[in-house]
Amino acid sequence: MWVETLCQWFKENQRDLPWRRDRIPYHIWLSEIMLQQTQVATAIDYYHRFIGVFPTVEALAKATEDDVLRLWQGLGYYTRARNLKRCADVVWQQYDGIFPNQYQDLLKLPGIGPYTAGAIASIAFNRRVPAVDGNVLRVFSRLDARSDDIANPKTAKQFHAALLPLIPEEPGVFNQALMELGATVCTPQNPKCNQCPVSKYCKAHAEGMEMQYPVKTKKTKQKQMPIGMGIIYHKGKLLCFKQVEGRLLHGLWSLPFAADLVDERMLRNQLAEDFQLDLTEGRFVGQVRHVFTHLIWDVHIFVFEARNAHAIDFPEVRWCSSDELETLALPTVIKKVLSKGIKL
Ligand code: SF4
């Protein structure tokens, strides 16, 4: 039966990853959150950094959101970092720093959905529960020649139900084996069926139809948005502000910007009004593109000088030297803008 074969293959062939060296729930949770939307090689680096600075849930709970966001810089999808902090707070305050060991309790924690709850429950606590991520959706679609649309959230629920009775004695091994097969052998393009431990059980392979699975409807196109961004300086310092709750990149530090305003005069008027500044005529210095999940920003960068240093009380603003700026939690798009090597 493919389940045993797959588990055995995993035990003999799994990659040596830092979060696989123990079964500490905190480590498994941290790695699972990082691995969402992030390549393994990148996640390893950040994982070591996080464990170094926040070795325990307690350390993470006692940090500020700014500390966490700063360490998360460059990983993107910052909601994960904010939820990481919120989840650590809940585990510390409500569970005395010990992760709950039941799937249903894990599901109630901030930032933990069915996949992550399944991964933690099975790997750390040996609970018989599936963990259906993108790799598992693909592998199981192929193994069982299932034509359910994996872009439909219902499919993950159906796969969860279908995998549940198949879970063997070691649920954590089974779930990780499915993910590992998807990550290293049953890859989206060119699956290595000739190296696959379960090829003789695979229905898609038997039909020569590996690439017909999984079925996935196309995503809607990302919306493209022109952004006018100002590098506003006054006596050699730059103006930055902390993005407010409910906005894209909230909690992170940004340069002033306005959506759909890439005309110098209109942008200057808008930023002058937003930040209560008297600005000189701006200079266009370049453009960068940044792709978010559902959005593409085409950022047009202008340098302005402020004749006054007065700025508003809300959102929080600061005038920073470039050294000070580096100590703040900056999103990748702002780093891209600053890395243009713009001369003031
Ligand atoms: Fe994937 Fe090919 Fe293995 Fe089937 S035989 S599970 S398609 S790698």
Secondary structure layout plus pairing:
Blueprint: H1 2-13, H2 25-35, H3 40-53, H4 57-62, H5 65-72, H6 79-94, H7 103-107, H8 114-125, H9 134-143, H10 153-163, H11 171-184, H12 203-206, E1 223-234, E2 237-242, E3 253-254, E4 257-259, H13 264-275, E5 283-291, E6 295-305, E7 317-320, H14 322-326, H15 332-338
Parallel strand pairs: 1-6
Antiparallel strand pairs: 1-2, 1-4, 2-3, 2-7, 5-6
The protein binds iron/sulfur cluster.
Structure description:
By secondary structure, the protein is an alpha+beta fold. The protein has 2 domains: 2-212, Orthogonal Bundle (Endonuclease III, domain 1), CATH 1.10.340; 223-341, Nucleoside Triphosphate Pyrophosphohydrolase, CATH 3.90.79. The protein has 15 helices and 7 strands. The chain has helices at residues 2-13, 25-35, 40-53, 57-62, 65-72, 79-94, 103-107, 114-125, 134-143, 153-163, 171-184, 203-206, 264-275, 322-326, 332-338, and strands at 223-234, 237-242, 253-254, 257-259, 283-291, 295-305, 317-320. Strands 1, 2, 3, 4, 5, 6 and 7 form a 7-stranded mixed beta sheet that branches. A hairpin with a 3-residue loop joins β5 and β6 (295-305).
